[in-house]
Amino acid sequence: MNDQIDRSAEQLPIFKQIMLHLAPGLLAVGLFVLLSVLLAPARFPPFLVVQLTLPVLILAELGIILFMGKRQTGRASIVKMIRFTARVK
């Protein structure tokens, strides 16, 4: 059970790290504002707009992980992108 695990991780430039962290949130905020404006005449509650925005946020985050995985490994795989998954003893 002494598997050799590749624990090396590529260090991304700081600007790219910031953008990868902020991009899904900016997308969600933009979508929330857009839907709030469009659905305000129909009297949709803001909480419903948040519920409509959350799946887009989750899909954006998964899409970024898959995109980065495809660039680094050649395959769109979430498992290859998540490192340090060994259990702590």
Per-chain topology:
Layout: H1 14-39, H2 46-73, H3 78-81
3D architecture notes:
This protein has 89 residues and is mainly alpha-helical. The protein has one domain (14-81). It has three helices and no strands. Helix 1 (14-39) packs antiparallel against helix 2 (46-73). The mean pLDDT is 82.
Give descriptors for this structure:
65% helix, 3 helices, mainly alpha, 89 residues, 0% strand, single chain
| H and E string | HHH
Strand content: under 5%
Low-confidence stretches: none
What gap, in angstroms, lies between the N and C termini?
13 Å
Q: Taking Cα atoms only, what radius of gyration do you get, to the nearest Å?
A: 18 Å
How would you sum up the major sheet? none
Structurally, the number of domains stands at: 1
Counting helices, strands and paired strands, the structural category is mainly alpha
Helix proportion range:
55-70%
Rough shape?
A: elongated
- List the total number of helices: 3
β-strand number = 0
The mean pLDDT is 82
